[in-house]
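Methods — Computational structure assignment.
A single polypeptide chain was analysed. Its primary sequence is given first, followed by the predicted tertiary structure written as structure tokens.
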Amino acid sequence: MGESDSQDRWRGLLWGMFVGDALAMPVHWYYDMAALQRDFGVVRDFQPPRDFHPSSIMPLASTGGAGRGSHEGEVVGSIILHGKKHLWGRSNRHYHDGLQSGDNTLNLLCVRVLLRSINKTGRYDPGDFLREYIAFMTTRDSHRDTYAESYHRAFFANYARGVAPERCAGAENHDTASIGGLVGLPPVIMAALREGDAAAVDHTLLTHLRLTHRSTKLERYALALGHLLPRFLRDPEPQIGRVACEVAESLGFPATQVVERTKHAGLTDLDVIGGMVSPACYIEHSFPAVLYLAARYPDNFEAALVANTNVGGDNCHRGAVLGAILGAALGYQAIPDRWIRGLRSRVELEEEIESFVAKCQP
């Protein structure tokens, strides 16, 4: 594989994350498929979120820490998401109130923080990332998103109590092991590839994951992603469907059989994601769902991301991981140009991605 082909894969992985997230953003955490169809039809292009979200349970989320709880705490409103707390108490408010068509959600904005940190230091530096992450999250008007996952709230609840940043990751709760925890790993995996050693990749990705997530369950899936992405980045002719099925089956999901049934027995994506596995964030469902979609649409980046979006649930974070996997395997040229052009931060992203590729590609 020539240098230009390799760079195309690296660009594809990174751009794929951002387009997968932005495409799904307006229907993120929709669980009523009739409502998704009614509000948006089949989502094939970037759209803004609607004010009314039929599946929103944001009023049940704690504003003082992880998980569900009361709105007495001030982590949301005073420490992070300044001026947004009042939106959390409104029924059916969209999680991404304030975003526009082609915008990225908070976890992808944190990926950009990571990219800028690596570009600045020339390597992955966990201490520098933590400083930049804290500054970004605690600075008023640094972004326009409204919602922060449990892990962000747990981290800043500890930070507000004076816990050292490297120990601020919250204790494991029911949703710690979620697909959102994998979203920040692809750039770390790529940076570690400069070492050329699988052990270095494993060590670096676990170091990064443990800054924000304490979960041995999640680590199993993180390591699977850390083994998968380098294969696709390096293989001149990646066997996307076969490899995705192998990884899924190693995690207990019968992907080969399921993909065959979609081809010959009339099984639909909604039968799989929503029937066999939950569309929610939980990693034992969401990561197999990503691998299923990669195996179901191995040569069609657009079809895979459209399918992911329209089965609802935690489709933003699944979309980011799926975009990374297929972008790494198929390259930048496989991503529809209209999606690249439609990203609201396209100019800044291009600068950050090009700098990252130049600094980190082996």
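Note: The mean pLDDT is 96.
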